[in-house]
């Protein structure tokens, strides 16, 4: 499953500038991020972006060797709220699933 994020997450991840987020058409932002290979889908109706994944299915921010999140402090809300999130700093809640594929 791709990680679904909102504009605020993209700003926190520093993929979108706060000014741009406020003033630019989300469709244009989605177009730019898709072209850059950062998102793989944009749901216009719900304004939800799906982060691009690697060919392995891993999140682009997952370190392939350590299986840790490389953007842990800036990770999207969906990762913060994931039921598997435990008291393990820097670990990706999706990491284990991706590993078992
Ligand atoms: S916690 Fe996992 S899914 Fe979320 S950004 Fe980090 S590596 Fe990606």
Protein architecture, described:
This protein has 101 residues and is α+β, with helices and mostly antiparallel strands. The chain has one domain (4-99). 31% of the residues lie in helices and 11% in strands. It is built from 5 helices and 3 strands; from the N terminus they run βαααββαα. Strands 1-3-2 form a 3-stranded antiparallel beta sheet. Residues 97-101 have low confidence and may be disordered. Bound molecules: iron/sulfur cluster (SF4).
Write the layout of secondary structure elements.
Elements: E1 4-5, H1 7-12, H2 18-23, H3 26-35, E2 39-43, E3 48-51, H4 77-80, H5 95-99
Antiparallel strand pairs: 1-3, 2-3
The protein binds iron/sulfur cluster.
Number of domains: 1
In terms of quaternary structure, what is this?
single chain
Quantity of strands, as a count: 3
Each distinct ligand: iron/sulfur cluster
Major beta-sheet overview: 3 strands, antiparallel
As a percent range, the share of helical residues equals 25-40%
Q: What's the alpha carbon Rg, rounded to whole Å?
A: 14 Å
Low-confidence stretches: 97-101
Query: Whole-Å distance between the termini?
Result: 12 Å
The averaged pLDDT comes out at 88
Along the chain, the helix and strand elements come as: EHHHEEHH
Which structural class fits the helix and strand makeup?
alpha+beta
Shape: globular
**Count of helix runs:** 5
Taken as a percent bin, the fraction of beta residues is: 5-15%
Strand order of the largest sheet: 1-3-2
């Amino acid at each position: 499953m791709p990680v679904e994020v909102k504009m605020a997450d993209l700003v926190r991840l520093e993929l979108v500038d706060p000014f741009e987020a406020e003033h630019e058409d989300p469709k244009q932002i989605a177009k730019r991020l898709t072209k850059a290979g950062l998102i793989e889908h944009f749901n216009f109706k719900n304004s939800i972006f799906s982060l691009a994944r690697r060919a392995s299915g891993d999140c682009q921010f997952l370190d392939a060797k350590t299986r840790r999140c490389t953007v842990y402090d800036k990770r999207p809300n969906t990762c913060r709220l994931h039921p598997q999130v435990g008291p393990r700093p820097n670990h990706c809640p999706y990491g284990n699933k991706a590993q078992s594929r």
